[in-house]
Amino acid sequence: MSPTPASAPAAAPPLPWNRPLIGPEEEAEVLETLRSGWLTHGPKATRLEQAVRDRLGAEDAFAVTSCTAALHLAFLAAGIGHGDDVITPSLTFCAVPNALLHTGARPVFVDVDPLTLNIDPEATEAAITGSTKAIAVMHYGGHPCDLRAFRQLADRYGLLLIEDAAHALHAVRDGLRAGSVGDLAAFSFYANKVAAAGEGGILAGCHDLVQRARLLGRHGIDSSAWQRHGKRNTADYEVTVPGLKYVMSDVTAAIAAVQYAKLPAFTRRRAEIAAAYTQALTGLPGLSTPAVMPGVEHGWFLYAVLIDPDTAPTDRDQLAAHLLAGHQISTSVHFKPVHTLGPYQAMADRPLPVTETVAARQLSLPCYPAMTDQDVARVITAVRSLWP
User: Among this protein's residues, is 44 annotated catalytic?
Assistant: First the structure.
């Protein structure tokens, strides 16, 4: 009798570039909210705002529908509009430039530092003119930009400093937490961020500016629905400015508050994954692993490698295709430079060589708390398989 043939090993399941880690705590908070009968901006959003104020040491915080909403409100509250320039990186998502155009202001794109991929302070200073109203920095991938340098630069020229901290909810540089240095800072709870609620954002910073943003973000009404529910008649209000509707719902806040509380543990796991990648991939010809400057506690939203096609056995796009087709591992690219996108091509008024080189070489590997050690090893093995 011949032996029974061994069954073929099962194919590895697809590994997404990102997957949120949602547990029973989030489920319980959402269910409690649904059963409470109060779904819009109320006690859960208020609790989240307080948690952000406590962690950042911020004067105020406002929970809104998205990080983009927070940025739009930041620019409106700061009085940024027609005739104003705002300096910002092009190696970023389009949220900041889009919001600026909706205020009538003009984004001025400058280059990034080749190590951290953050906006460069020297390039920023060189771009300041009499029309410059603010600097909008972005903390690329969770590595904070040089917060002290930008605070000093903004103060020296009398400019507002606004932080796009979508990648950096739990990151620190030189003892300063990302989002705690700017006049205003915007955070994200989007589905793929380090604290994921599907959507949602926070605007934090100076009390007067956040209060103005809060007014603008609830139709210009002088009190919230939750305040009127508890202390005033629901029809007892005044519209003091023509505002917008940007308040975070309590359903979203129920998830976001739990995720925000888990950030220290989430960040530790992301750092473990990043350390494993760096140990295994450092030294591969033509592949650069992310730099971490001294005094930085990285948030690790992105683990971004750079592939130099002149010295590596592959290029960025070939590596991404190999990981997906051969190993069912998804990756992502961060970002297509904003100055190359349709509405902004005419605004590229200076060379951005580092930005364009990075954009052609950058690849984000999976790096998130829901990954197992086996997942991490699988990514490492798949990447290294292209290097002889």
Answer: no
Rounded-to-integer distance, Cα 281 and Cα 105, Å: 43
Catalytic residue from among 193, 231, 245, 262: 193
Q: Which amino acid is at 45?
A: A
Q: CA separation (Å) from 155 to 42, 104, 165, 182? A: 36, 24, 20, 11
Burial of 73 (0-12, 13-18, 19+ CB in 10 A): buried
Residue 2, pLDDT score? 38
- 286: tokens are 């033509």
Counted residue by residue, the chain has a size of 388
How far, in Å, are 242, 245, 253, 258, 300 from residue 261 at the CA level? 35, 27, 12, 5, 17
Question: Top-level CATH class of 24-263?
Answer: alpha beta
Cα distances (Å, whole numbers) of residue 233 to 42, 103, 229, 311: 16, 34, 7, 69
What is the pLDDT, as a whole number, of residue 9?
A: 43
Using one digit for the tens of pLDDT, what is the confidence trace for 234-288?
667 889 999 999 999 999 999 999 999 999 999 999 999 999 999 999 999 999 9
Residue 362 tokens read as 């950058």
Helix (H, G, I), strand (E, B) or coil at 352: coil
d(CA 220, CA 361): 45
Question: Does 264-384 carry CATH code 3.90.1150.10?
Answer: yes
Nearest to 342 by CA among 110, 94, 138: 94
pLDDT digits (tens, 9 = 90+) for 312-321: 999 999 999 9
For the record, the structure tokens of 141 come out as: 């991938």
Secondary structure (3-state) at 365: strand
Q: Which has the closest alpha carbon to 184: 142, 137, 143?
A: 137
Delimit the domains of the chain by residue range. Answer: 24-263, 264-384
Within 8 A by CB and 6+ apart from 330, the residues are: 14, 15, 16, 17, 323, 324, 366
Closest CA to 86 of 116, 127, 147, 126: 127
CA 82 to chain centre: 27
Tell me the pLDDT of the chain averaged across its residues.
95
SS3 for 364? strand
